[in-house]
Amino acid sequence: MKLPTGLDTFSEFAILTAFAAAIAALMRFLKQPLLVGYILVGLIAGPLGLNFLKSNQELELFAQMGVAFLLFTVGLNLNPKIIKEHGKAAALTGLGQVVFTTSAGYILARLLGYAMVPSLYISVGLCFSSTIIIMKLIADRGDLDALYARLSMGFLIIQDLVAILLIFTLPIIATGGGMLSVFTKFGTGVAIAAVILALSWWLLPKINSFIARSQEFLMLFAVGWGTGAAALFHYLGFSLESGALLGGISLAVLPSRHEVASRLTPLRDFFLILFFVLLGSQMNFGQMTSSLFLAVLVFTVLVIIGNPLILMMITGAMGFTRRTSFMNAMTSGQVSEFSLILLALGVKLKDVAPADQSTVTLVAVITILISTYFFQHSDTLYRKLSPALKVFEKKNAREDALSAPPADLILIGANRIGFDFIRAFRRIKAPYLIIDHDPDIVSSLRKEGMPAQYGDAGDAEFLRSIHFSFAKRVVSTVPDVQTNLLIALTAKKENPDCTVMAVAHSIENAHKLYDAGVDYVVMPHFLGGHHAAHILERTHTDPSLLPRLQQEHKAYLSARSMLGHEHPTARQYDAGAKK
Prior knowledge:
It contains 26 helices and 6 strands. The chain has 579 residues and is mostly helical. It folds into 2 domains: 372 residues, Up-down Bundle (Na+/H+ antiporter like fold); 127 residues, NAD(P)-binding Rossmann-like Domain (Rossmann fold, 3-Layer(aba) Sandwich). Helix 13 runs antiparallel to helix 14 and helix 13 packs across helix 16.
């Protein structure tokens, strides 16, 4: 198939957009990441395909804008609360994967014949996992509040920070001139960044009410601020990308930052699509020899197998269950969008050959496809691999999990919903037991004198060790319907007279649980609406009740806040803004 020659720039981009929409529809139908489809569009439009893409300068400009907007929104949405929630685990898993994969990747690259500098770029490029892909997959499963998801968010932020540091420092190092020159320029960059941040943190809160009055002006101000910071850094000899990132971080003090991020997302996504299209169009398989295809195979195995293994070893050593470790590991087996940005930066700095960039891009496509498939079938994989995964779980943790004492009341999952059940258990004054798969939560509950047990409710072996025959009430706040079905079937089989309550987040899953013998299904959002309507009725007949109810609710929220609880909608909003 041949397209007309001599197309103008507008016609080229019109055809490119049509191709992108068609391929995106196909990828959605196949339930594959759109990012892979956009790279495929570049392959079709480039020299290996229809070869109609001639406006490379314009495409490179738009691609650069896409990267700048991505880093700008990353800066806007950096959330240190997630790191604080699981600081130790986030730091160890995030940095552990970076160190392991970079070291292993560098050794493998050198063995495959790469020079030192390209080996460093490639090995660093292989160590980052994709925030965009992982957040989308977790959100699609409805697991944003699951323990493994929170661990994943933590290590992703750590990795993002490492990538950000590299994006800032690599162009400085590439200028050469000796160590003194590098340190001088680095110090200059840090000083400029400090001045911009100090100015923005002092000025922006004062003018927020003025710029937020108009949505159009707010959007224009944010874009102008971000592109202005990027242009300033570029003019001073630093990378445009580091300036865009700094612009986002400096705007993060705005109360309206989430609104800015959400409004910028479509603009960012459009330009970012062109970045991935450009990557695809620049891939040249004609230059890829058998040794390069061997490198692709070796690097793919490292990312798909090596990254998950190191994460399972670290989280297992920290006392997390094998299921949590496995699910967390399943989020790490792909190459990040930051990796592609770093390699593109390396090509621009002439540190890396275009063929090396094509190698990592091909590894990214393969690992994203394979890891997506693995994650979508992670429950099946876990059931098959569970016996072998015992090696990644502390022996004393397993023994502790299998020594649960009998109790009248059993709570599985001491999360936000569990907070209210714990209070109810203490008021009932009957023997109770709290089970959770987060060792930090178990340790905290024990320090408060509560009977808490470490264990994974998704593990059939562990469930069989619980003394359900003594239980009168079993409550599960676990969000996963399959786990709740397993709990209900195990509890009812051992003790048909015990009452089982479980949580569901869809009507379909609620019916599944009722059919499996669950006595009452808690649907948090529906229950919240029912409770609010009840308050409305009470205060309508007696308005004097409202101030007291308000004070009680504020005290309740303060107690929740002290425990680090947050409403799931807030977490979903942050994840959505980051995607």
